[in-house]
Amino acid sequence: MIMGSIARRYAKALFSLAVEKGRVEPWSESLQSLKEGVEGSPDLREVLSNPVYSREQRRAIVEKLAAALRLESEPANLLFLLGDRNRLGYLGAIVDTFRALADEHLGRVRAKVTSAVPLDGSAAQAIADRLSQATQATVLLDREVDPALLGGVVAQVGSLVYDGSLRTQLEDLRRQLKQ
């Protein structure tokens, strides 16, 4: 709970600045890249979140990271602030909250679409179009593959789930036959 409120506070502050400067989308993308980079490197995560490392050591790494990702000054300053306050461990939650605020601001929703096999571009676009009609918003797909579905897709938009998987259809048929 505390982590969520702290992350929300930082994300809202940065988001307000992004709106003011008209940089919501670029900052959202660069923050997501930053998050993926940090999460993808256990060593980097260790250095950034472990208070054993001095402030100067963390700051030097953050400077190199910001330069490598070509972060604009405000997102980079967020990193420095988090480092100075030993809160770099909150980065993932801050980025997720910022991304949610950005999506809401830009009138879009994210849908998690799970399929039995990888979706090609046209199938993914068709699903996104149908979900856009249902939600009256632009839909961005986060795709996953789960062979256990056997066929079809499961789409989740917020708390709403559309389950068109073969696995669920077979389970429904099995239940009906048992009655």
Described by strand count, sense and barrel closure, the largest sheet is: 4 strands, mixed
Number of structurally distinct domains: 2
What's the helix-strand series? HHHHHHEHEEEH
Shape: elongated
| Helix percentage | 55-70%
In whole angstroms, the N-to-C terminal distance is 44 Å
Q: In angstroms, what is the radius of gyration? A: 20 Å
Count all strands and give the number. 4
CATH second-level architecture of the largest domain: Orthogonal Bundle
Name the CATH homologous superfamily of the largest domain: N-terminal domain of the delta subunit of the F1F0-ATP synthase
Low-confidence residue ranges:
none
Beta content comes to: 5-15%
Summarize the structure.
Belongs to the ATPase delta chain family. The protein has 8 helices and 4 strands; from the N terminus they run H-H-H-H-H-H-E-H-E-E-E-H.
